[in-house]
Amino acid sequence: MSVGPMRSVPLLPCASIDDVVDLWVALGMHVDYRQDEPRGYLRLAGFDGAELHYFDAPDHEPERTGGGCVLVVDDAGAWFERWSVDGGTFFGDAGRAQLVGPHVDAGGHTVGFSVVDPAGNRIRVVGETRAEPDDQSSERPSAYERHGVAAAPHHRFSALIYLAELSVRLGRLDDARAHLAAAEQIIPDSPAIAMVREGMQG
Predict the structure, then answer these.
(1) Residues forming beta bridges with residue 125, ordered by sequence position
(2) What rounded mean pLDDT belongs to the chain?
(3) Helices (H), the chain
(4) Distance between CA atoms of 78 and 87, rounded to whole angstroms?
(5) How far apart are CA 50 and CA 63, in angstroms?
(6) Contact (CB, 8 A) for 35 and 14
(7) Are strands 98-104 and 68-73 parallel, antiparallel or unpaired?
(8) Is it the case that residue 106 has pLDDT exceeding 80?
(9) Which helix (H) or strand (E) covers residue 32, if one does?
(10) What's the mean pLDDT in 97-121?
(11) What is the DSSP letter of 129?
(12) 141, 147, 149, 151 alpha-carbon torsion, rounded to 10°
């Protein structure tokens, strides 16, 4: 039986959609749909088809009940630079949002970073994997195709950092330390590892 295409849409909790809308508009998205009653719901769109959906969660606590998703982009470094500028008033000491990273590979190239929105959701931005220059294949495997020990070292590193960040958010500090130890075997003294360890102290 033939079926049509499928797509997934991130659905993220927040105490109020007012908490998140200004950040994403500043980063380049627009409000595609907004509902305030009987329960807040927000659909943001932009970037040639990307969507983020938010819903009001009455018991939402950013430090404890935040969600997360992954955005796959062509060039993570370019997005990090753009959002560092566009979101300047929202990130840092004066804002409730955070720009975390960038995470770099052994060659110093940005492979990913995270945006923690004011509701405590972590939006992980991951660069898409490209074939090596001498590879004549036209295939470009996705960032999701990096499972197991056969994956490239910088992909394993990025995945381990993500798992460590997630473990910290879930309060599983032993798991986080194990992931960081494995990441350190790939790229010692990485700023990404130091950042996660700093977060464990908070």
Answers:
(1) 71, 113
(2) 79
(3) 18-26, 62-65, 76-86, 153-169, 173-186, 191-201
(4) 14
(5) 26
(6) no
(7) unpaired
(8) no
(9) strand 30-35
(10) 84
(11) P
(12) 20
195: amino acid identity, one letter: M
Radius of gyration of the chain (CA): 18
DSSP tag of 128: P
CA dihedral 45, 155, 157, 70 (to 10 degrees): 20
**First CA to last CA distance, the chain:** 52
Partner residues linked to 20 by β-bridges: none
- What is the rounded distance in angstroms from the CA atom of residue 102 to the CA atom of residue 122? 14
Helix (H, G, I), strand (E, B) or coil at 99: strand
Range list of H helices, 87-127: none
Look at 54 and 74; give whichever has higher pLDDT: 54
Distance of CA 152 to the CA centre of its chain: 20
User: Which of helix, strand or coil describes residue 113?
Assistant: strand
